[in-house]
Amino acid sequence: MPHAEAPIVDGNGLSGIAGFLREELRPYPGRSATVARMLVACTCTMILVMTLRLPFAFLGVFNALVISREKPEWLVKNGFVVVIANVAGVALALSGINLFYDYPLAHFLFLLAIFFLVFFLKGVLANDNVAFGFGVIAVVTVTFLWDRPYPAEAHLDMTLSLSFAVIMGTVIAVATAWLALSMDAGERTRESTDRTEPQTSRRLFAGDAFSNPEYTRFALKGCVAATLCYLFDSAVAWPMVMGACAETCIVTSTPASIPGSSRQRLVTRLTALLAGGVILGMGSSALVLPLVDSITGFTVQFVVISALAAWVATSSPRLSYAGTLGAMAYFFTMFQRFGVNVSLSRSRDVMVDILVALLVFWLMFDSGLAGGRRVAPESGT
Fold first, then answer.
1. Residue 281 gets which letter from DSSP?
2. Which residues are bridge partners to 193 per DSSP?
C-alpha cells in the first residue's frame, strides 16, 4: 500500500508555517559541525575550480556540498567508492558515445538506457551519494556536452574537465571529513541520523534490489520524465540543453517517504528555486557582483549564502531537499564557466530549465497522473 501523505505543516496559515520553520531550523547537537564541514568543503572547491579556471565549476562545488552531509566516518571509509562511481559514469558515457555517436537512433536509445540506469541505481544503491556521483557525470556528459556542435576534441576536453571538477569536490569533502575526525577524536558529538544525514549502510545495494518491482517502476518513471525534459530542450534549441535538468533529474526525484502532500512538496521546491536561484543567485549577479573586485569579496557572499543553504539542507527530510535544491539553483546561476556568471540572460535560461524539470518530475512522481507516488521499498537511504 502507498504511504499516507502526512501533512508538513501543523496548524493553519502563517502561524503553522512559522511553527514548522522554527522546528526545522532550530539548532540541535551536531548540526553546526555538519554545516561547517559542508561549508569548508564547497568553499575550498570553489576557490580551486576558479583558480584552475575549470568549466562546470558548479558541479564540483555542488557535489562537495551534498556529499559533505554524510557522516565523516562514512566519507573517510567510502570516499573512494564515490570516486569510482564518478569514473564509472565517465567511462560508460564515453564508451556509448564512441560506439553510437554517428548513429542517431542508437545514440537516442543509449541515452534512454542511461536515464533508466541512473534512476534504477538511485533506487537500489544503499547510499544516495554513490548514485549521484555516477548519475550526474553520465547524464551531463551524454546530454549536455555531446549534444553541442563542438568538434570531438572540445567535447572530450569538457568531459574530462567536468569529471575532474566533480572528483575534486569528492576528494575535498573526504579530506575535510578526515580533518574533522582528527580534530574531534574522542570528543565529537554523535549526530542524529534522522535529522542530519541519510542513513548509511554497509551494503552496496538494498536487500530487495533485484526482487522488488517498485525499483523498476521508479526507474521507468524517471526515464520518461528525463526524456521529456530532454525532448523539450532539444525541440526549442534551449541554450542550456539539459544542463540544469541533468542534476534536477536526480535531486528532485525524491522518494515516497518524504512527508507532505503533493502540493506542499511542489510549493516547497518552487520556493527553494525562487529563493536560491532568482533572489540569491540572480540577485547577487545584479546587485553584489558589480561591487566585488576580488576573490575575497566574492568568497564572503558565497560563504554566507552557502551556509544558509547548508543549514536548511540539514533539516529533517520534510525540508532538507529544499536546501539542496536552493543551493543547486544558486550554484548554477553563479558558476557557468570557469568564473562567476555575470549574464542574467544565462541565469534566466537556467532557472527556466530547472522550472521545467521540476514541473515534469512533479507530474510524473507526485501529481498522480502516472500512478501516484511509488511505494518506498527497502532501502538504506
1. I
2. none
Q: Where are the alpha helices (DSSP H) in the chain?
A: 13-25, 31-51, 57-67, 72-100, 104-124, 128-139, 152-183, 213-235, 243-251, 262-273, 283, 295-313, 320-334, 344-365
Q: Specify whether the backbone of 194 is left (phi greater than 0), alpha (psi in -120 to 50) or beta.
A: alpha
Q: Is residue 82 within 8 Å of residue 133, measured between CB atoms?
A: yes
CB 340 within 8 A of CB 49: no
For residue 159 the three cell numbers come to 568531459
What is the distance between the alpha carbons of residues 52 and 272, in angstroms, rounded to a whole number? 30
**Burial of 157 by CB count in 10 Å (0-12 exposed, 13-18 middle, 19+ buried)?**
middle
Residues 6+ apart with CB under 8 A from 315: 24, 25, 195, 322, 323
Q: How many CB atoms lie within 10 A of CB 68?
A: 31
Q: Is 371 left (phi over 0), alpha (psi -120 to 50) or beta?
A: left
Instruction: Kindly give the confidence (pLDDT) of every residue in the chain, 381 residues in length, as a single tens digit, with 9 standing for 90 and above.
Output: 334 444 455 445 667 778 888 888 899 898 999 999 999 999 999 999 888 888 777 888 998 998 998 889 888 888 888 899 989 998 998 898 888 888 889 988 998 999 899 888 888 887 778 888 888 888 888 877 777 666 777 778 888 888 898 899 999 999 999 998 888 765 544 444 444 444 444 577 777 777 888 889 988 988 888 888 888 877 776 655 455 555 565 565 555 455 566 777 788 888 988 998 889 988 888 888 777 777 888 889 899 999 999 999 999 888 888 888 889 889 888 876 555 555 677 777 778 888 888 888 888 877 766 555 444 444 333
Buried b (16+ CB within 10 A) or exposed e, 359-375: bbbbbbbbeeebeebbb
DSSP 374: P
Distance CA 24, CA 51 (A): 36
Phi and psi angles of residue 11, each rounded to the nearest 5 degrees, phi first: 100, -175
- Tell me the CB-side half-sphere exposure of residue 55, using CA atoms within 13 A: 14
- HSE, side-chain direction, 13 A CA sphere, residue 106: 9
